[in-house]
Predict the structure.
Amino acid sequence: MNRRRLCPPTLLAAALLAGAGAAPAIAHHSFAAYEKDKTLTLNGSVKDFVWVNPHVLIWILAQPPAGAANAAPELWSIETTSPGVLTRSGWSRTSLKPGDHVTVEFNPLRDGSHGGGLTKITLKDTGQVLVPSFTTQDPAKPK
């Protein structure tokens, strides 16, 4: 029986390549960048609704806080889950359109930049509430 043996450098190279591919995948699905114990609310309008994998993005032009020196709207990037998960939650690629007036509740980024993870979005004109399915709902509140 003739067995082919891999030498230690070959095994090491194979392990490094396998590990290099796995690390970004694990890091990518972490929600550690968000302050899960803090929720912010923004009022504004949808600038863009980007329905792509791996995560749908909602770009919001938010009104600055009252009394802010800069009266121009602020651009915020709000991340949610994948299109597949949102579809199972009742969303579609047309759920939000540029110009829609919304109230957005989200967990902010830990670094303080203008972004966060969506917990709830309400369309002001219709009152429709959209919640990504990964968000835990209060059982006392209807879905």
